[in-house]
């Protein structure tokens, strides 16, 4: 990150992990200080000049009773967000590998509420992702009343979009074939569509049969990723509400398979999938990163505290 003659700052230890190719820089902020502005997160996220990741995950001490950790999530664009499903699985594996806990059931505080992570064998983790939110005001999605599909204009075309929050906002479109779906073009427009005032993750769902589906997701603040855990949960909720999917679905994303279970309205969504630890690293941050450059905060909570 240095090399430009700027003064050298603190060293940050981190672990690179991924859940089905949705990749993360994971930082233990219990054992070391963590204080990064959004522009530094964007530099670290850069795949050519930085570490490279879709999201930065930060492990902090809990701020609530009966909770083991606080889990903070930053997109590659530096914005702090409420939830990340693949990240939650990697978080569980990380805190056990680092011996920050020896529990197999871990309760973590996120900006979207408390979630429960259950560590299984061979890096598999099951996450209780909470009850999906379909009330438009709470997603947030601009609509007079709750509907299963909303007509939304994109590039002169009217699309049938479903909206759901898994703690973070999602739009879901049904497509015939994810391989040819206009993920980059429609995804980028819908991510910033005025009807999503906090922006949104946009999923393109192809139903194969009642127990199997395929999905590609254009993520808010990161672009298309190889997997999106909350996106998979949102897609299965929409597929079930539309009468196309059963309660338990194997969903194939570009990076592999997730298993999602939902027993219907009022029930939490359960997500099961693998985790992988890629390498441990240390990076020297520029000494003057707190003072340099114009502040360009992300759309959500700024990264520094
Ligand atoms: N990769 C994620 C979601 C990360 C946050 C998302 N981009 C947002 O802005 O809400 C997942 O696995 O859920």
TrEMBL record:
UniProt subcellular location: Cytoplasm
Active site: 84 (proton donor), 84, 228 (proton acceptor)
Enzyme Commission designation: 5.1.1.7
Pathway terms, separated by semicolons: Amino-acid biosynthesis; L-lysine biosynthesis via DAP pathway; DL-2,6-diaminopimelate from LL-2,6-diaminopimelate: step 1/1
InterPro entries for the chain: DAP_epimerase_AS (IPR018510), DAP_epimerase_DapF (IPR001653)
Region (Disordered): 283-305
Superkingdom classification of source: Bacteria
Keyword Amino-acid biosynthesis: yes
Catalytic reactions on record: (2S,6S)-2,6-diaminopimelate = meso-2,6-diaminopimelate
Sites annotated Could be important to modulate the pK values of the two catalytic cysteine residues: 170, 219
Compositionally biased tracts (Basic residues): 289-298
Site (Important for dimerization): 279
Keywords in alphabetical order: Amino-acid biosynthesis, Cytoplasm, Isomerase, Lysine biosynthesis
PROSITE patterns listed in its UniProt record: DAP_EPIMERASE
Binding-site residues, substrate: 22, 55, 75, 85-86, 168, 201, 219-220, 229-230
Gene3D superfamilies registered for this protein in UniProt: Diaminopimelate Epimerase, Chain A, domain 1 (3.10.310.10)
Keyword Transmembrane applies: no
Task performed by this protein: Catalyzes the stereoinversion of LL-2,6-diaminopimelate (L,L-DAP) to meso-diaminopimelate (meso-DAP), a precursor of L-lysine and an essential component of the bacterial peptidoglycan.
Subunit structure: Homodimer.
Family: Belongs to the diaminopimelate epimerase family.
HAMAP family, A to Z: DAP_epimerase
Name of the protein: Diaminopimelate epimerase
């Amino acid at each position: 990150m240095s090399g430009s003659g700027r003064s050298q700052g603190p060293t940050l230890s981190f672990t690179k992990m991924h859940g089905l190719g949705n990749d993360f820089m994971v930082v233990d902020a219990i054992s070391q200080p963590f204080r990064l502005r959004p522009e530094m997160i964007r530099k670290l996220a850069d795949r050519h000049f930085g570490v490279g990741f879709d999201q930065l995950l930060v492990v902090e001490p809990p701020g609530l009773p009966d909770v083991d950790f606080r889990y903070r999530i930053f997109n590659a664009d530096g914005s702090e967000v409420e939830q990340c499903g693949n990240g939650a699985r990697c978080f569980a594996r990380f805190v056990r590998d680092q011996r920050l806990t020896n529990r197999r059931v871990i309760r973590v505080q996120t900006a979207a509420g408390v979630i429960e992570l259950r560590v299984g064998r061979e890096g598999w983790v099951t996450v209780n992702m909470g009850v999906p939110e379909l009330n438009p005001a709470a997603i947030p999605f601009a609509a007079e009343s709750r509907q299963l599909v909303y007509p939304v204009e994109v590039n002169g075309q009217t699309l049938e979009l479903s909206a759901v929050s898994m703690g973070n906002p999602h739009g879901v479109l049904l497509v015939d074939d994810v391989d040819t779906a206009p993920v980059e073009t429609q995804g980028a427009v819908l991510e910033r569509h005025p009807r999503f005032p906090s922006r949104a993750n946009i999923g393109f769902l192809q139903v194969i049969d009642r127990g199997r589906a395929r999905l590609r997701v254009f993520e808010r603040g990161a672009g298309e990723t190889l997997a999106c855990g909350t996106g998979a949960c949102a897609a299965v909720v929409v597929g079930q509400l539309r009468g196309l999917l059963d309660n338990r679905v194997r969903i194939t994303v570009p990076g592999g398979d997730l298993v999602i279970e939902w027993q219907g309205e009022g029930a939490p969504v359960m997500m099961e999938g693998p985790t992988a630890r890629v390498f441990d690293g240390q990076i020297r941050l520029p000494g003057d990163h707190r003072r340099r450059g114009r502040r360009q905060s992300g759309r959500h909570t700024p990264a520094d505290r």
